Amino acid sequence: MVTEQRALFIIFGGTGDLAKRKLYPALFNLYRKGFLKENFAVIGTARRPWTDEHFQEVVRDAIHAEGALLKDTSRFASHFYYQSHNVNDTEHYTTLRNLAEKLDQKYEIGGNRMFYLAMSPRFFGTIAKHLKSQKIVTAAGYNRVIIEKPFGRDFASAEELNEAIGRYFPEKDVFRIDHYLGKEMVQNILAVRFGNNLFRALWNNRYIDNIQITLSESLGVEERAGYYETAGALRDMVQNHILQIVSLLTMNMPASYSETDIRREKIYALKSLRKYTPEEVEKNFVRAQYKAANGQRGYREEEKIADDSSTETFVAGKLFVDNENFSGVPIYIRTGKRLSQKTSRIDIAFKAMPTNIFAPQRLGQNVLTINIEPEGKIFMQINVKKIGQGFTLKNSHLDFFPTSNGESTFPEAYEKLFADALAGDATNFTHWEEVAHSWKFVDTIRDTWDKQNDVLEEYPCGSMGPQASDKLLERDGCKWFYQGKNN
Ligand code: NAD
Questions:
Q1: GO terms for CC (predicted)?
Q2: Protein residue closest via CA to atom 19 of ligand 1
Q3: pLDDT at residue 407 tops 70
C-alpha cells in the first residue's frame, strides 16, 4: 500500500558516494511511486561550497533517468537544497536550522525530520549532540536518525557510539541500516519459514543437517581500501550481514509479524550464538587474503594497502546457534572479495531419509536454496522418478522465481528501507541488542586472530577461497553446495 509521507530529509555527507549511488535514486523511486509527492524536501550537507543548482544537477545525474521520467526528475530535484556545513562547527547548525524551518513551512511538512548520517561514524556523536542542542529536532513531528554501517569496530566502540547517540535519540528513533535486511530475498526467509507449514515443521535440528551461507564478491577493495584495511572481511561482512541472515534463519517463530516480536526473537537467536574458546576459533574459522592470479593483482599490491598487510579478505567459519531448534546444526558461512562470482545465497541441507527403499540407487540430498543475488530465486532439490521404463530416480529442481509471475522487479534495498523508516517501521533495521550480541561473538574471533602470529592463508583471485575453507566442511563429511562460476 502506498501512503504519501511528509518529511524533511537532512543528509549529512550529501556529496558522498553512498548518497549519490544509493540514496538519491532510492528517494526518486519513492517519489515516482507516490510515497513522496509535494510535501517533502531534502537538504544535502557536506563541506564543499555547492549551490542548490549544482546540487540539483548532481541529484539528476545520480538518478540516471531516461525518456518520460526526465520530466519527473526535474520536479523531484527542485525539492533538493544544499547547505555547506562542517559538522564540527556549532554555528553551521544554526544556518541549518533556519533552512530546515523555512523548508518545513514552504512544503508544509509538519515537523517530520529524517536525519541520515551518510558519513564516517566518528562524527555521529557530534552530529546527534548538535541536532538536539541547536534545536534542529522538532517537537511538532518525528525525529528519526538513520545510521550507516560500520556501527563500531568491536563491542566496546559500538557501545560508546550507541551511548553517544542514545543520549539524544531514544532507541525507537534510531534506524541502523543493514541493507541486506532491505533485500527482497532476505525478507523472503520469514515468508518461507512462517508462511508454510511444510517448512515450519521441518525447520529444526531433527530435519536440517546443515546450513550454508555464501556472500561472495568478485570485486576487490576498489575505492574503499582505506576503510577495508582497518576492517577486514570479519568486521565488514560477518558481524552485520551474515549474522543478520543467521538470526532470520534460526530465530523462533515470533508471536506476530511485528517489529517488537520479530526483533525479540532475532535478539534471542543472536544471544544463543555459541561463543568459542581461542582453540575452537582456530579449529572453526579460516581467514585468508587474495593473491595475484587470472590477470588480477593481489590484495597487498592494491593501492593504499600495506605491503605486509594482514587484513583478511576472506572468512569461512562454522558456527552454532544453541537454541532449542538449532542446537547441533552446523552453520557454515563464508564471504570474501575477488572470488569467482558475485553471489549471495543460502543453502539449507536436509537430513537423509532414515531408510532407502530404492537401494542400491542413491538418494540425492534435499536442499532448499534461497538465492539472494544476482538472481532472486528459490529452488529445492528433490528426488523424482526418471520418465520412462523401469524405475530410476533422479535429483530434480523445483524452481520459484518471484519475478517471473508478472510481479514487478525487486525494489532496491535502500528504497524499501527508506519507505519503512518513513512509516516508522524498524523491523528491517538492527536493534542495538542485535548489534551488541553480534559484536561479542565476532570479538572472540578477532581477539584470537590478533594474538596469533601465523601467516595468513592465501587464495588466488577468481577462486572460491582457500583450501582450508573446503576442508572445514570435508572434516564433517560435507561440501559447499555452491562451487562458484559453473554451479
Ligand atoms: P564518502 O567519503 O564518499 O563521503 C563522505 C561524506 O562526508 C562527503 O559528503 C564529505 O564531504 C562529508 N564529510 C566528511 N567530513 C565532513 C565534515 N567534517 N563536515 C561535513 N561533511 C563532511 O563516503 P561514503 O562512501 O558516501 O560513505 C559514507 C558512510 O556510509 C561511511 O560511514 C561508510 O562506511 C558508509 N557506507 C558506505 C557505503 C558505500 O557504498 N559507499 C556502503 C555502506 C556503508
A1: cytosol
A2: 86
A3: no
